[in-house]
Amino acid sequence: MGKIVIAIDGYSGCGKSSTAKALAKNLGYTYIDSGAMYRAATLHFLNENLSLSSEDEVRRGLDSLEISFRINPETGLQETYLNGRNVEDEIRSMHISQKVSELATVASIRKELVAQQQRLGRGKGVVMDGRDIGSVVFPTAELKVFMTANLKTRAKRRQLELLEKGQSVDLIDIEENLANRDEVDSSRTESPLMKMPDAEEVDTSDLTLEEQVAKIILLAKAKIKMN
Ligand code: CDP
Predict the structure, then answer these.
(1) Which of 12, 107, 117, 221 has its CA 20 to 30 A from that of 187?
(2) Ligand 1 atom nearest to CA at 132
(3) pLDDT tens-digit map of 29-78
(4) Residues 6+ apart with CB under 8 A from 207
(5) What's the CA gap between 52 and 38, in Å, rounded?
């Protein structure tokens, strides 16, 4: 059976990454977290003290940016590396969450990261999640999913995720951050977040992780059969 490309887009914190990860595992596909790339780029620009409003500094930042993913042999989980350093936990912090959407509006940065994402997904058999995967990165993806969930549910899930990483954050701050990122991501000129007409919408507000994964596995299997 032919392998397909699965694009999962949607609002901040509605479970795209957890779903995409479980889906990739079930299908034996590669999972690519495009959001982790924007987060790692944000950390890099902050560490190097580079301004997003200077073309020169953006170029310098991109030239010195190397993002990769490696599997942790102990946990079997994929982790993000920035210039050879494991930054998986650091990029999930609220500090990065508060800065990332601004960086994601910069056209030259998007162009570079999209090119890397397209290279990573070249062989098919890939599940990628983000904001512009079905619209820009893989417009011909065989399966496009647009995930939504109400803000309260998303904030509670994210709070739990952060707590599991040892970061205790107030619910109201998380809610504010998610809402703010949704607004910036949906209204930017460069590849804004939007539901593509050929995307399947999945509202996860009242679904458990297992239920939402099962739902998308069904959609994927139907597409794989047709391929
Ligand atoms: O996991 P969460 O929903 O918090 O977000 P993420 O997928 O880690 O993405 C972080 C941020 O990166 C988003 O809010 C967007 O600003 C940006 N992003 C983007 O612009 N395009 C993508 N394909 C993925 C992420």
Answers:
(1) 117
(2) 23
(3) 999 999 999 999 999 999 999 999 999 999 999 999 999 999 999 988 89
(4) 215
(5) 13
**Which residue CA neighbors atom 9 of ligand 1 most closely?**
35
3-state helix, strand, coil in the chain (%, to 5): 50, 15, 35
Domain spans in the chain, listed from the N-terminal domain onward:
5-213
What is the reported pLDDT for 227? 84
How big is the chain, counted in residues?
Answer: 227
In short, whether 80's Cβ falls inside 6 Å of ligand 1 is no
Which numbered atom of ligand 1 lies nearest the CA of 101? 16
177 lines ligand 1 (CB under 6 A): no
Its pTM stands at: 0.96
What topology is assigned to 5-213 in CATH? Answer: Rossmann fold (3.40.50)
